[in-house]
Design goal:
Hypothetical Protein Ychn, Chain: A; alpha/beta; 18% strand; five-stranded parallel sheet
């Protein structure tokens, strides 16, 4: 009998928590997929790395802090968050400012992750 390999979902978070609600939608999608037993990996690049900051102060109530949701990633069997090291550096951010342990990768590793994703959703 042939076994079917489980499909994985890679969610690419590109927008900041303050510019657009799509980043929060991506986080919600990851939590929902994880809750239903799907293999989920989320990647934070460009302004999406701002979701990972431990000290967030949204200006508008619509843009809630992401830290509460991101801190629950392991409860949903979601792989450790991945962040692009260059995106942090370009924004003068350090790993010490992040809310949780994050796997920092260079652009080459990031490209490999994106190239091998079964399903790639961008937010």
């Amino acid at each position: 009998m042939e076994t079917k390999q489980q499909q994985s979902y890679t969610l690419l978070i590109c927008t900041s928590p303050w510019d657009h609600t799509s980043g929060k939608t991506g986080i919600d999608a990851a939590l929902a997929l994880g809750a239903f037993g799907q293999k989920v990996q989320w990647v934070f690049i460009q302004n999406g790395v701002y979701h990972l900051l431990s000290k967030q102060a949204p200006l508008c109530p619509v843009y809630k802090k992401s830290s509460h949701f991101l801190s629950q990633w392991s409860l949903y069997d979601i792989n450790q968050p991945i962040a692009c090291q260059s995106s942090l550096q370009e924004r003068s951010l350090s790993s010490k400012e992040l809310i949780t342990s994050v796997n920092l990768v260079n652009r080459q590793v990031l490209q490999n992750i994106l190239d091998t994703a079964h399903h790639l959703w961008s937010f």
